[in-house]
Design brief:
- By secondary structure, the chain is mainly beta.
- It contains 5 helices and 22 strands.
- It folds into 2 domains: 48 residues; 205 residues, Fumarylacetoacetate hydrolase, domain 2 (Alpha-Beta Complex).
- Helix content is 13%, strand content 39%.
- Strands 7-6-19-11-14-16-8 form a 7-stranded mixed β-sheet. Strands 4-3-2-1-5 form a 5-stranded antiparallel β-sheet, with no helix packed on it.
């Protein structure tokens, strides 16, 4: 099993980054691992902490319509360049946290996605700064790890507003986690399940993306500086659908695990 990097809150309200072991204990780092954090002598027992979203980014950069069949199901042309939007960091919640159905909307949708965690350029063994104007080759090197995301969207407001800030920006609209892995199979499959169904609503290989992860990171870095710990959502495949109060939505990605959240009023 790949190493699982987590962010946790102890029963005493202290927040740490750490490494989740098979026995569910956590070895604590002295800093975020993408900033060179190292394991300390602190070990947390399984009943002494709760798992949070695995990072606290300065920004979430998301990509729309990055799977061909999803663009077609939306009735729109395939983008010639990545279609970008931002989600506030306040949208982030962790595994098993509640998605809050906003009063302003009458339809919210799930969108299961692969998320990239940005690291730092290095020079030798030294952290060498933030990520700006990167080639695809360098972009590949600054993808520190991978996790699961759910880009919750108020679909009615997206159509009404003509731009996506409100529809994508409500608190709790970016479930993320439960942990980060450093490596991912090229053909890893993403699946989204609703409630107790064994039949996925979404199912696609991440290799079906129109624009690859390294291309996306390079493209975005020519627009804005990417800071260590920032998150990039790489788009959702076809099969999006609505959520109602009481629903549980589970996004699985092979090689990472599963992210589960439920909807409340």
């Amino acid at each position: 099993m790949a190493q699982r990097y987590v962010r946790v809150r102890t029963n005493q309200k202290q927040v740490y980054y750490g490494l989740l072991r098979l026995d569910r204990s956590v070895g604590v780092f002295d800093a975020p691992p993408w900033l060179g954090g190292q394991l300390t002598d602190i070990d947390l027992k399984p009943d002494t902490y709760s798992i949070l979203a695995p990072c606290a980014p300065s920004k979430i950069v998301a990509v729309g319509k990055n799977y061909l069949k999803h663009a077609l199901e939306m009735g729109t042309p395939v983008p010639r360049e990545p279609l970008l939007f931002l989600k506030p960091s306040t949208t982030i919640i962790g595994d098993e946290a509640a998605i809050k159905y906003p009063k302003q909307s009458v339809r919210i949708d799930y969108e299961g996605e692969l998320a990239l965690i940005i690291g730092s350029l290095t020079q030798g063994e030294t952290l060498h700064g933030y990520c700006k104007d990167l080639s695809p080759e360098l972009a590949r090197k600054v993808i520190w790890g991978y996790t699961i995301a759910n880009d919750i969207t108020a679909r009615d407001l997206q159509k009404k507003d003509g731009q996506w800030t409100r529809a994508k920006g409500f608190d709790t609209f970016c479930p993320l986690g439960p942990w980060i892995v450093r490596e991912l199979p090229l053909e890893a499959r993403l699946k989204t399940f609703l409630n107790d169904s064994d039949t996925p609503k979404q199912s696609a290989s991440i290799s079906e993306m129109i624009f690859s992860p390294e291309f996306l990171v390079s493209y975005i870095s020519h627009i804005m500086t990417l800071n260590p710990g920032d998150v990039i959502l790489t788009g959702t495949p076809e099969g999006i659908g609505s959520l109602t109060v009481g629903d549980r939505v589970i996004v699985e990605i092979e090689g990472i695990g599963s992210l589960s959240n439920y909807v409340i009023a």
